[in-house]
Amino acid sequence: MDPIEIEPSDLDPLDWNEFRLLARRALDDMIDHLETLRERPVWRPPTEEARMRFREALPRSGRPLAESVDLFDRFIKPYSTGNGHPAFMGWVHGAGTPVGMLAEMLAGGLNANCGGRDHLALEVERQITHWMSEAFGLPNEAAGLFVTGTSIANLLGLLVARNHRLGDGVRERGLVGGPRLIAYASASAHGCISQAMEIAGLGSDGLRLIPCDGRGAMLVDALRTRLEADRGLGLTPFLVVGTAGTVDIGAIDPLAELADCCAANDLWFHIDGAFGALLAFSPKLRPLIRGLERADSVAFDFHKWAHVPYDAGFLLVRDGSALRRTFASERGYLSRASTGLAKGETWPCDLGPDLSRGFRALKTWFTLRTFGLDRLGRSIERNCEMAARLAAHIRQCADFTLCAPVSLNIVCFSANSRDRDTVNRAIVECLHVSGRAAPSITLIDGVAAIRCAIVNHRTTASDIDNFFADACAAAREVVAGSRPAGPAR
Amino acid sequence: MDPIEIEPSDLDPLDWNEFRLLARRALDDMIDHLETLRERPVWRPPTEEARMRFREALPRSGRPLAESVDLFDRFIKPYSTGNGHPAFMGWVHGAGTPVGMLAEMLAGGLNANCGGRDHLALEVERQITHWMSEAFGLPNEAAGLFVTGTSIANLLGLLVARNHRLGDGVRERGLVGGPRLIAYASASAHGCISQAMEIAGLGSDGLRLIPCDGRGAMLVDALRTRLEADRGLGLTPFLVVGTAGTVDIGAIDPLAELADCCAANDLWFHIDGAFGALLAFSPKLRPLIRGLERADSVAFDFHKWAHVPYDAGFLLVRDGSALRRTFASERGYLSRASTGLAKGETWPCDLGPDLSRGFRALKTWFTLRTFGLDRLGRSIERNCEMAARLAAHIRQCADFTLCAPVSLNIVCFSANSRDRDTVNRAIVECLHVSGRAAPSITLIDGVAAIRCAIVNHRTTASDIDNFFADACAAAREVVAGSRPAGPAR
């Protein structure tokens, strides 16, 4: 054997103290950033200089860590999405918390791979599964799995339903030559349901979009009619996806009625509760999602209304064995042992497609445990109250009209203009560029509407009042044909 | 309107200074932990007390943050997988770095959602795409996407290939009634390829496992024969998956020959390079993966041989438009704008199934930029040298036999015993419980072998020598029928 090498050639710091000081400074700067979020614009357009900093040549040699921290500070942090800011109301973005950041730091240092093996990180994930089963009213035997987000969680739920319907051997033989499976969701369902049908090989044509009532909730009678018609055509219905909180307007399907319909027709009942499932945290709002406890599977995100740092999606499946049957496989390199590190019957890699999985459970555990469900629930309630406040402003204003009922935390409204589509888009762009607010756009009946999804725990009544004033000013300037030059505040 | 509320009711700290002190302490403790990894056992069996700490009742009320940090410290950190430890050699786990932890802390604080929109985080992800395209020799127009891990990256690559073959309309009509698509991979391919066939609706029967040569590399002649036979049966070959680094023994398929075969037969050429693709970082080892530059798509992980904290998988697709065609869709709530926060033509959500995506690019950018490809490449070379060193020990030892050629960083060996399966498993369990080393088990020709995947940048020659001595001692004690009581060192 060669003599043992002496020089350190690993990727640890040569000088731990120097690293420690740098890391402390980075931490302090990040805490400063979070503490002073309100003082900065919600968003500012990235400069060309900033973009160019990330068009560097391939780094054959290393560069000092302090330089990268500095580049982060000067060119990444100032040009972020702004979803931490109380005036951010676009899409459906969680706001994060300092608690979540602390947990992510610990997870980054621990560097657990939560695909399997016997270590405490998996117990933390199991704790979250049990907590959420209880919070949603699912049985204690339900299986749970962290994934990136609800899009993937919906896909996995759909795959379980697909394989459950097609039965033994489907994993081997695939779909070609089999029956045509049909799924049902509301016309307001998220696009990821359609995409999940594509990925699963069922095709988006196999998804029936059922009409909604005036509040955006699926019409169960229309579902029943369609089910019968499809059966008459020799097709094979297998799945109903109920939505708890539609992306456009925050509508909630009649989940209990859907559960009845699924039970009567032997269909898998999956719920896309990306943000709405967490209404379960609020005793006051929980009745809105009555029926959630009867789902076969529920997909939702912790990074939205629980403000866990991105990403932390989750799938709960009532019959854990169905999840396992869909994904588990025998592989020599995943052999289990009766003792030691390879101990354990069910590993997360038996319940989903990921073998390499970060420790999403830690930031979620820190969040749920530090705030408690009651406080998170109140934060959700407050978002809904803020949406009602904004809606009241709009109802009293001659320049705007509500485009959809406001039953939860999302407000869609439009300028009262001849060319609403163009004007609404211009108002939103104008608000973004001003740095004063960040709503987004969605289409209501094919026309662009201004959409405020109030998800941020930092958004107060005065933020809502300020936003409304800003929106009014932006509308006037857009209609007058001149956008405000508006320096970022 | 109601009077504006005064009390803070968000999820930020009431006392920022208190939070800052706690976060600093947590950071310091984590750095201490990393600095002193070697002084602790690689792994220790979780105590029942530790497990019970994560069977708490649902937290309706919050608990002090300091208490959770303390629980992490006492019950999670000590019972981790140990993949940071130089004696960890199980499965294929990256070891993490302090640099990665720092970046994860910043990402956790920034809380970017990298599904889309105009913010610098996406430029960082694009930077990684360009760097990796250059490192692998793919064209600059290649599209790239962070995902959790190679299992998902392989799935997405397979979906692109599937839709590319089935052409326009497949997203809508699905697979039922269509041709039977057939994919090809080596008999040593990772199980996630088969699982990707299942998920995609093609069925694992549609995957042909082609025999390998004595070094575990796919026999291209056998592939050609099978291709012809399948065509003769009226089936539709569409995809060849080459493996750069098989999970069991680290074999590499003849990628250039596979590229020729794919070109001649109009097949999509995907490479599962979970860890092996990063051999491209080493000028010395790069020739082993000649042909990588001709792939249509490459899946790999940064959390393995680049030691980015979990998880950080990646997919590169030569023809970016094919990736976009597979996943992009028109959705009102994802409307693009010519200016403002919704600016941008291609967002990551157009290239894959995730709309909610954490900022994996940041920890990867920090890692590649701080160390540089040369240093990461040397770290990979050293792992391969350490594997050769271990193999040399085993060749000179009467008690053990190598079970497979050692061409990369993985050493599979067996005790020279009558009941190898049982004895090898017992040796591995014994090493785990002793806390001295963490190899894993895989099956070679159906029999359990002791498997050391040397992936850790901290593993030195003396770690290898110590491991070998520990393995010899464990073997003697197992054969003698008594496991060492071995207190954790």
Feature tags:
Aspartate Aminotransferase, domain 2; about 500 residues; disordered C terminus; 14 helices; about 40% helix; homodimer; 4-stranded antiparallel β-sheet; 7-stranded mixed β-sheet; disordered N terminus; alpha/beta; 11 strands
Give me a quick take on this structure.
The structure is a homodimer of 489-residue chains. Chain A has 489 residues and is of the alpha/beta class. Chain A is 41% helix and 12% strand.
Explain this structure.
- The structure is a homodimer of 489-residue chains.
- By secondary structure, chain A is an alpha/beta fold.
- Among the domains of chain A are: 16-35 and 44-79; 113-358, 3-Layer(aba) Sandwich (Aspartate Aminotransferase, domain 2).
- Chain A is 41% helix and 12% strand.
- Chain A has helices at 16-35, 48-52, 65-76, 98-110, 120-136, 150-166, 170-173, 191-199, 220-232, 255-265, 320-327, 360-395, 420-434, 461-479; strands at 143-147, 181-186, 207-210, 236-243, 268-272, 297-301, 313-317, 400-402, 410-415, 440-444, 447-453.
- In chain A, the strands form two sheets. Chain A has a seven-stranded mixed sheet, with helices on both faces.
- In chain A, helix 4 (98-110) runs antiparallel to helix 12 (360-395), helix 5 runs parallel beside helix 12 and helix 6 crosses helix 11 (320-327).
- Chain A is globular.
- Residues 3-7 and 484-489 of chain A have low confidence and may be disordered.
Q: Strand order of the main beta sheet of chain A, please?
A: 1-7-6-5-4-2-3
List SSEs of chain A in N-to-C order. Answer: HHHHHEHHEHEHEHEEEHHEEHEEH
Multimeric state: homodimer
Number of strands of chain A: 11
Name given to the CATH homologous superfamily of the domain at 113-358 in chain A? Type I PLP-dependent aspartate aminotransferase-like (Major domain)
Helix-and-strand structural type of chain A: alpha/beta
If you average the pLDDT of chain A, what whole number results?
A: 95
Q: Which chains have the largest interface? A: A-B, 192 and 193 residues
Total helix count of chain A? 14
Helix fraction of chain A by DSSP (H/I, runs of at least 4): 40-55%
Shape verdict of chain A: globular
Report Rg of chain A.
25 Å
CATH topology of the domain at 113-358 in chain A: Aspartate Aminotransferase, domain 2
Given as residue ranges, the uncertain stretches of chain A (5+ residues, pLDDT < 50) are 3-7, 484-489
CATH architectural designation of the domain at 113-358 in chain A? 3-Layer(aba) Sandwich
Largest sheet of chain A: 7 strands, mixed
C-alpha termini separation of chain A: 67 Å
Provide the β-strand percentage band of chain A.
5-15%
CATH class of the domain at 113-358 in chain A: Alpha Beta
